[in-house]
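User: For my dataset I need records formatted as: sequence, then C-alpha cells, nothing else. Please produce one.
Assistant:
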Amino acid sequence: MRKSTNNQPTADDTSKGQIRQANEATILAAAESVFARAGFGGATIASIAQASCLPKANVHYYFGSKEVLYRAVLAQILSDWLEPTRCITVDAQPREAIEQYIRAKMTLSAQRPDGSKVFANELLHGAPVVHELLTGDLRQLVREKAAVIQTWVDAGRMAPVDGTHLFFTIWAATQTYADFDVQVCAVLGKSKLSAADHNRATEHVVRLVLRGCGLLG
C-alpha cells in the first residue's frame, strides 16, 4: 500500500474514503426505509443489510449496532430538515423565504416520506433517542429563526404572527403528507399520491400560510 510521506492523503486513501461514504449513505437510506416500516423493535441488522444490498458484516463494521445506526438515521433526518431554514434571515424577503422553506419541506415529505415516519414514530414514543437533539440543536435553531420572524413583524414586513408556532404549523401542514399519507390517499380515493397531487398540496399550503402571514394580497 502506498503511503504519504508528508501527511497528505494518497489516491488510495481518497478512494477508500469515498467508498466508505457511499456505503454509509446506502446503509442509512436502507435503514430509514426499514425503520419506517418495522419500527426500531421490528427492524434487524439482517433486514437492513438485505435492503442495502450489502453484507451484514458491513453494516456492523460501519455502525456497530442497530442502536447506533438508529441514532445516525434520526440525526441525518433532523439535519436534512433543518437545512432549508438557512433561507430565513433578517435580510431576506419574508414572502420569498417562507415560501422557499415551505416548498423545501413539502419536497422532503414527497421524496423522503420514510424519514418523516421514522421521526414521527420516535416522537410518539417520547423521543427517547432524539430528546437531546430536540432540546438542544432544534430548540436553538427555532429560537433564532423565530427571532428573525419577529424582526420582520416589528418592521411591518408581515402580519403579527407567533414565529415559534408558525414553525409548528408549517411542520404539521407539510409532514402530514408523509406521516399520514394513507389517510390522505383514502380520502382522495387514490392508492398513491402522484406528483400532481403533491404539487396541488404544495400550492395550497404555500397560499394558506402566506395569506395567514399577511404576505398575499
